[in-house]
Every structure is written in structure tokens, then in C-alpha cells.
Amino acid sequence: MNALIRLVWNLGMQVAYSYQLARQRRQLAELSDEMLKDIGISRAEAYREAHRSFWDEPKNQ
Q1: What are the per-10-residue average pLDDT scores of the chain (61 residues)?
Q2: Contact between residue 28 and residue 46 where contact means Cβ atoms under 8 Å apart
Q3: What share of the chain is helix, strand, coil (3-state, %, to 5)?
């Protein structure tokens, strides 16, 4: 039973993380060109990041 609880918990945490990552990517796409320039990201890079699949997570978390 403990294994099942851990599995469900881990799945829930992964879904929550994926949702948070998708929200951050949408917010990045909404930044102005000036804001993107301030953080060193081009509009094209922001677009690519915003359109990554939800399962495409960064390697370094």
C-alpha cells in the first residue's frame, strides 16, 4: 500500500511541476522585448521555450 501511495504522490507532484513549468513558459512569452533583452533572451528564444512540450523539462532543475 505504501508503494501505491508513493506512486500516486509522485505522479501528483509531477503534474503540479509540469503545470508550473507551462505557466512560467507562458509568462516568458508575454514579456516585452525590453524585458527579454534585460534577461538576455531573444523573442525567438522565448517563443521556442514557450512552445516546448509539457514533458520537455529542463535538464538542470
Answers
A1: 93 93 94 97 95 80 50
A2: yes
A3: 70, 0, 30
Amino acid at 13: M
Q: Which three cell numbers stand for residue 25?
A: 513558459
Contact 50, 29 (CB under 8 A): yes
CA distance 33 to 15: 31
Contact in structure between 61 and 20 (CB atoms under 8 Å): no
pTM of the full structure: 0.75
Widest distance between CA atoms in the chain: 53
Dist CA 18 CA 37 (whole Å): 26
